[in-house]
Amino acid sequence: MINSSSNSSLSSLTADVRIMLRNFMAPFKEGILFKDIANIFVIEDFGLIVCCMNRADYLQAKDGVSTKFPNWRTTFVTTSDSLLESKYDILWELMRCGYMKWLRYTYPRQVKRVLVGPENLGNRIINERLRIWQDKPKFKYLIEDNKVALKNGVANELTRDPSFFDFMPSEGD
C-alpha cells in the first residue's frame, strides 16, 4: 500500500512538471500510468513521454511506458530528483525531437529572449553539446563551431545562424 505522503509527493511532482511543460509552451496531454505510482505527460507533437513517479516504482513505470508507448522518447522524473536538473533533461529530450525548431517557427519573438535571458539557455545548450561530444575526434568540427559560438556570444550566433540552437545530440554517439 502506498502511504499518503508518497501520494502527496507524486501529486506535487506532477503539478511541478505540468507547470514546467506549460512554460515550455509545448502542447501535452496528461494521464495516469499506474494509480498512485506513475503519472505521464504525452507530448504527441514530439513523440515524448514524461513520466513522473516514485523512485521505488521505476521498473514498473519503465515497463508500462515502453509497453503502452513503443518507439517514443521517454524521460523519467522521480520524487527524489532535482527539479532543476529534470527541467533540463526534459528540455534536452524535447530538443532531440525538434522542439527548438518548432519553437523558433511558432514563437519567433520568444526564442532570442529565452536563449539570451537570465537562465542563459543558449550557453547551457552549447555546454551540454560539448559535454556529450567529450572532445571525440568525430565531432571535431561541431566542437570547434560550438566553442566559437560560446566565445562570440549567443546573440551574435543567433544573428549569424538562427537554427544553431535547434538540435541536441543524443547521448552515447
Instruction: Tell me the strand percentage band.
Output: 5-15%
| Unreliable segments of 5+ consecutive residues | 1-5
What's the overall average pLDDT, rounded? 91
Sketch the major β-sheet. 4 strands, mixed
Classify the helix fraction into a percent range: 55-70%
Number of spatially distinct domains: 2
Shape: globular
Amino-to-carboxy terminus distance = 41 Å
Notes on the structure:
Helix 2 links the parallel strand 3 (48-53) and strand 4 (73-78). The protein has a four-stranded mixed beta sheet, with helices on both faces. The protein has 173 residues and is an alpha+beta fold. It has eight helices and four strands. The protein has helices spanning 4-24, 58-68, 83-96, 99-106, 108-116, 121-133, 140-152, 154-160, and strands at residues 29-34, 38-43, 48-53, 73-78. It is globular, with a radius of gyration of 17 Å. The chain folds into two domains: 4-96; 101-160, no CATH class.
Topology (elements, then pairings):
Blueprint: H1 4-24, E1 29-34, E2 38-43, E3 48-53, H2 58-68, E4 73-78, H3 83-96, H4 99-106, H5 108-116, H6 121-133, H7 140-152, H8 154-160
Parallel strand pairs: 3-4
Antiparallel strand pairs: 1-2, 2-3
Keywords, please?
single chain; 8 helices; 173 residues; 55% helix; 4-stranded mixed sheet
Quickly describe the structure.
The chain is an alpha+beta fold. The protein has two domains: 4-96; 101-160, no CATH class. The chain has helices spanning 4-24, 58-68, 83-96, 99-106, 108-116, 121-133, 140-152, 154-160, and strands at residues 29-34, 38-43, 48-53, 73-78.
